[in-house]
């Protein structure tokens, strides 16, 4: 007797052993990794993309692929042991001449995970030196519990030419349908009996096979890349024509841009977290990872990567997190490594589990590296940095496990807190501290050292054997010890606590400052709203009193007593007007909307000020009409009037000071009450429940200890307040000083971050320049030669012409950038105005033409010379003229002129004039008034010119600004 195997056994080993979609895809990617692939990808083609009528899925790798013999003797034989044998693999053709890799698959059933993804399926596989193999199958046939494995026909074909593909696919489908139909009546009867209980399943399978429609691009994009005998053609591709219904959720996610139903989002994110980090990206920067994975969703709008590498963590993320645990667990279970707590590092931390010291563990040695970012209140990160980490933690936070740098599922997924961090934390967050969703990092295992940690079938985690149990217990012990020593509320080592107290003090001060700024901003907003009405009121009163004075002056005689009151009122109103001059806020910087309103107020104030000229003229006229003897009285009366105004100001300030001191007094009393309440709480908590000498002595000791701590904090708090008041200098405007330093600090932080970005961008441009040169050369050669291979047709000639013209246009633009590269700074030379003009004409040829700009240069400029670097001078002209082109769009006859005089190069245009208040401000980093401007061009121009002893400035001086628009000067000693 022998065992016989029902076909459904394969179904049970396939779909029955796979937990979910990510697991199924990961299994196929691991097989690709074992086949020495470097690129593993999945693509979901949905309706709307090109001519796709029904969605289908591809899983592909660029591994060594399979020959016909490999498919028959390995892929189609379940439980093969060729991967799990301890035969030594050597670098060669079987490894695609790459270094041997640790084997991931070992049970011989991982390939069956493709059945979980959907049916029917077409497998294409190409091995070097062998023709393309095509296998067609519908996995649902294995659900028939009447079939034995030997009853199932799996068609396989070899394809040599692209023209044969459709024919061979048709034959494959016909051969597969022979599982249901036969020309022989007796055989057909037998087949019918096998399906008599599952007629609907049979119909569904047959209908699926008959209704497969291939889009027009299918053969060209999916099949032809695997055809041919070239050495670089190899790999395997699975095409699933009716993907699992869960893939429809991914299409919804793609269509709705993450605005799908909440239930869908949860499922989609679960799939996503299972697919990201397939290779250990924690160890590498994205560009350095030896394996790349992608999952593209293609729809009517194009394609997007569902698991973009940039969204996941990288090695750089460990640098800036709040806490870091980085070390190794040796074969005895002892952890040794560095613990960074905020800004302080413990470099000699050790943890030894509770076990005999000389007894080796069953699980073996491994690496662990873990970053941690607590909640907002306990993080020292800046808001933007905290948000960066918080967003990633919400999506991908967790502790991942990798074996030989490939992820072990389901560890790292949101619902796999295998060390029970959240369960313990729910009992006491302050005691246990660690939260699974606030951490990111990995445990790095190897097949060689950790072989007793065995995966369950279907990658549902490790088998719960003694090695895994010890592994968990010792890791839990490590984190309990870390919490006890450093992280819990009352940790043995006060490193975290002391830094956190400083942080809380700093955040309290920041919060207090933020509240003050909030109040000041609210007052400023009200000030902006009220000031126009106030100016309007002053203007009306001044108009009324002026009219009264004018009427009096029209009479025959003008006694001084008759106009004395009007003079007093005019003085008072003018003083009140001067006092309403718009004042910028001192404690904070205006935002763009506030700045716009403020500038309108300035214009309103300036316009109103012009009316005072009429009032002064009227008053002068009045003074000329009164008796000379009365003029001295007017002088004395004006002096008394000014004294009254000073007294009024003093009285108002005294009232404000009184309010301030009342507020300070209340604040001191409130602070005293607060600390008295804390002391009373200590008193209540330490009252002895049972009166005895020992209990009372303990209570006395606790009360004294608590009071000393409270007294110290209370004294420090009051001293700080008192010292601040005593140190106050009425000659110094504290708000203005604080505002000045805040502004400087914020600018410094912003500049530092943006300088890093700019430097990185500059370095990247320099690096790729050599490659661009090479690529341009290749393109130029290829375009020149391709014409000989084109079909002699009208369409071919037309499209080739378009291609050549586009390339020549692109090449012209690229060549115009050459002088801007830093390498050209190696040569300092005389650059003539004529050269600069020619360069600018070439660079802005289209812009000048499209915008109808008249661009001219004077002869003195053409004859001028400047001794410097092309890479410094030319970008300055480009920046200035590029800005001018934007601002000239509102002009009927836009014009740009470049002149030369007194050793200065002068760039002028007839666009809007730059306000005097902004002549220097426009050179500040990130200052811009353009809607999509970056505000770096003029800043960099000025900065670069200064490195070579030159400078640039804007001017409204009529000697230079001859077009009455914006004018810039370039030269030496511009501030003299």
UniProtKB/TrEMBL annotation:
<dbReference type="InterPro" id="IPR043836">
    <property type="entry name" value="DHp"/>
</dbReference>
<protein>
    <submittedName>
        <fullName>ATP-binding protein</fullName>
    </submittedName>
</protein>
<dbReference type="Pfam" id="PF02518">
    <property type="entry name" value="HATPase_c"/>
</dbReference>
<dbReference type="InterPro" id="IPR003594">
    <property type="entry name" value="HATPase_dom"/>
</dbReference>
<keyword id="KW-0547">Nucleotide-binding</keyword>
<feature type="domain" description="Histidine kinase">
    <location>
        <begin position="767"/>
        <end position="976"/>
    </location>
</feature>
<dbReference type="GO" id="GO:0005524">
    <property type="term" value="F:ATP binding"/>
</dbReference>
<dbReference type="Pfam" id="PF19191">
    <property type="entry name" value="HEF_HK"/>
</dbReference>
<dbReference type="InterPro" id="IPR005467">
    <property type="entry name" value="His_kinase_dom"/>
</dbReference>
<dbReference type="Pfam" id="PF13589">
    <property type="entry name" value="HATPase_c_3"/>
</dbReference>
<keyword id="KW-0067">ATP-binding</keyword>
<dbReference type="InterPro" id="IPR036890">
    <property type="entry name" value="HATPase_C_sf"/>
</dbReference>
């Amino acid at each position: 007797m022998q065992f016989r195997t029902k076909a459904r056994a394969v179904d049970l080993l396939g779909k029955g052993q796979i937990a979910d979609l990510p697991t199924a895809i990961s299994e196929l990617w691991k097989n690709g990794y074992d086949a020495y692939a470097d690129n593993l990808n999945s693509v979901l083609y949905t309706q709307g993309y090109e001519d796709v009528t029904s969605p289908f899925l591809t899983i592909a790798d660029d591994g060594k692929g399979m020959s016909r013999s490999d498919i028959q003797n390995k892929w189609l034989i379940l439980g093969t042991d060729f991967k799990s044998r301890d035969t030594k693999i050597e670098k060669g053709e079987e490894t695609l001449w790459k270094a041997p890799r640790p084997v991931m698959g070992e049970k011989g059933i991982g390939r069956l995970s493709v059945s979980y993804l959907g049916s029917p399926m077409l497998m294409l596989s190409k091995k070097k030196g062998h023709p393309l193999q095509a296998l067609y199958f519908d996995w649902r046939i294995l659900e028939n519990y009447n079939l034995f494995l030997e009853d199932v026909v799996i068609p396989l074909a070899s394809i040599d030419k692209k023209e044969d593909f459709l024919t061979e696919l048709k034959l494959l489908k016909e051969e597969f349908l022979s599982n249901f139909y036969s020309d022989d009546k007796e055989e057909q009867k037998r087949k019918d009996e096998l399906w008599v209980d599952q007629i609907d399943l049979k119909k569904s399978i047959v209908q699926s096979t008959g209704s497969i429609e291939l889009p027009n691009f299918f053969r060209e994009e999916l099949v032809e890349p695997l055809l041919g005998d070239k050495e670089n053609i190899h790999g395997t591709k699975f095409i699933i024509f009716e993907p699992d219904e869960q893939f429809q959720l991914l299409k919804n996610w793609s269509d709705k841009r993450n605005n799908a139903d909440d239930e869908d989002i949860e499922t989609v994110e679960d799939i996503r977290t299972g697919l990201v980090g397939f290779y250990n990206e924690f160890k590498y920067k994205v560009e350095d990872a030896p394996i790349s994975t992608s999952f593209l969703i293609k729809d009517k709008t194009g394609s997007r990567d569902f698991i973009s590498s940039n969204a996941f963590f990288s090695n750089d993320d460990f640098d800036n997190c709040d806490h870091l645990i980085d070390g190794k667990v040796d074969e005895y279970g002892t952890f040794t490594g560095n613990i960074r707590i905020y800004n302080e590092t413990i470099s000699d931390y050790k943890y030894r589990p509770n076990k005999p010291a000389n007894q080796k563990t069953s699980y073996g040695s491994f690496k662990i590296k873990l970053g941690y970012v607590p909640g907002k209140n306990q993080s020292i990160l800046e808001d933007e940095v905290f948000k960066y980490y918080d967003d990633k933690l919400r999506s991908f936070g967790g502790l991942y496990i990798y074996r030989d740098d490939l992820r072990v599922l389901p560890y790292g997924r949101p619902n796999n807190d295998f060390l029970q961090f959240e369960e313990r934390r729910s009992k006491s967050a302050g005691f246990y501290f660690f939260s699974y969703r606030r951490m990111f990092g990995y445990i790095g295992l190897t097949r060689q050292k950790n072989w007793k940690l065995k995966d369950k079938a279907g990658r549902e985690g490790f088998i719960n054997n003694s090695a895994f149990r010890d592994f968990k217990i010792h890791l839990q012990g490590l984190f309990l010890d870390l919490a006890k020593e450093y992280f819990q509320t009352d940790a043995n080592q006060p490193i975290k606590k002391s830094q956190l107290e400083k942080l809380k003090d700093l955040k309290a001060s920041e919060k207090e400052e933020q509240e003050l700024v909030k109040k000041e901003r609210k007052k400023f907003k009200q000030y902006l709203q009220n000031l126009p009405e106030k100016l309007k009121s002053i203007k009306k009163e001044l108009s009324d009193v002026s009219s009264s004075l004018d009427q009096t002056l029209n009479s025959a005689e003008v006694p001084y007593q008759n106009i004395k009151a009007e003079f007093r009122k005019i003085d008072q109103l003018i003083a009140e007007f001067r006092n309403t001059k718009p004042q910028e806020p001192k404690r904070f910087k205006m935002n763009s909307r506030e700045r716009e309103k403020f500038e309108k107020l300035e214009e309103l104030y300036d316009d109103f000020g012009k009316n005072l000229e009429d009032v002064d003229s009227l008053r002068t006229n009045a003074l000329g009409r009164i008796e000379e003897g009365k003029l001295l009285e007017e002088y004395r009366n004006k002096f008394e009037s000014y004294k009254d105004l000073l007294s009024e100001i003093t009285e108002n300030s005294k009232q404000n000071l009184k309010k301030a001191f009342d507020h300070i007094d209340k604040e001191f009393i409130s602070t005293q009450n607060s600390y008295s309440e804390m002391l009373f709480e200590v008193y209540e908590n330490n009252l002895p429940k049972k009166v005895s000498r020992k209990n009372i002595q303990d209570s006395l000791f606790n009360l004294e200890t608590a009071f000393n701590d409270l007294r110290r904090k209370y004294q420090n708090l009051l001293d700080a307040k008192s010292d601040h008041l005593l140190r106050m200098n009425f000659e110094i405007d504290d708000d203005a000083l604080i505002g000045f330093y805040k502004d400087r600090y914020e600018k410094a932080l912003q500049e530092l971050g943006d300088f890093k970005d700019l430097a990185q961008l500059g370095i990247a441009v320099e690096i790729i320049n050599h490659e661009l040169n090479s690529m341009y050369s290749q393109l130029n050669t290829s375009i020149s030669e391709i014409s000989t291979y084109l079909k002699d047709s009208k369409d071919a000639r037309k499209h080739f012409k378009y291609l050549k013209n586009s390339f020549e246009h692109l090449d012209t633009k690229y060549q115009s950038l050459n002088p801007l590269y830093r390498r050209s700074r190696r040569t300092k030379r005389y650059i003539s105005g004529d050269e600069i003009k020619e360069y600018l004409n070439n660079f802005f040829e289209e812009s000048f033409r499209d915008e109808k700009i008249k661009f001219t240069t004077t002869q003195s400029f053409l004859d001028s010379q400047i001794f410097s670097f092309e890479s410094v001078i030319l970008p300055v002209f480009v920046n200035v003229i590029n800005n001018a082109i934007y601002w000239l769009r509102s002009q009927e006859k836009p014009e740009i002129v470049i002149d030369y005089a007194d050793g200065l190069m002068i760039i002028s245009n007839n666009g809007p004039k730059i306000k005097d208040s902004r002549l220097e401000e426009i050179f500040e980093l990130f200052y811009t008034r353009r809607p999509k401007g970056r505000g770096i061009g003029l800043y960099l121009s000025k900065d670069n010119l200064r490195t070579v002893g030159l400078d640039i400035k804007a001017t409204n001086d009529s000697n230079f600004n001859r077009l009455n628009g914006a004018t810039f000067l370039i030269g030496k000693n511009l501030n003299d």
